[in-house]
Amino acid sequence: MKDTTIDRYVTFKGIDGDGNARRIVAMLRRYIDDPDLTNAFWERYKEKLALAANPDLNSGRHLDELFLVHSYINNIRELFEEHDDHEALALLEQVETESC
Q1: 24, 90 contact by CB (below 8 A)
Q2: Is 61 helix (H, G, I), strand (E, B) or coil?
Q3: 3 Cα distance to chain centroid
Q4: What are the residue boundaries of the structural domains of the chain, listed by start?
Q5: Are 17 and 92 in contact (CB under 8 A)?
Q6: Which one of 61, 63, 83, 95 is most buried, by most CB atoms within 10 A?
Q7: Residue ranges of the alpha helices (H) in the chain?
Q8: Distance, CA of 8 to CA of 10 (rounded, Å)
Q9: Cα dihedral sign for 17, 19, 24, 28?
Q10: pTM of the prediction?
Q11: How far apart are CA 18 and CA 58, in angstroms?
Q12: How far apart are CA 25 and CA 14, in angstroms?
């Protein structure tokens, strides 16, 4: 019988880390793009997201969504918890387990 368990320590095969991170960012933007819900921290985070798309503007350093989700996972979790967003929290847990 073939074991179909995904184990990031063996292989990232079958894990859509980049796609899942993009989905997390899309879920996050529902809150941080709302002027009534954002703050200085999230405004700076959005600047980093913009740099992720263009390493030439970031001294050649390439940040991607997965890196930015991983680096700020506790802040993201806190925001999703604050808004009682169970769907986003479940995906965040999956990303943390599979990719971080």
Answers
A1: no
A2: coil
A3: 28
A4: 17-99
A5: no
A6: 95
A7: 17-32, 40-52, 65-71, 73-82, 86-99
A8: 5
A9: positive
A10: 0.82
A11: 20
A12: 21
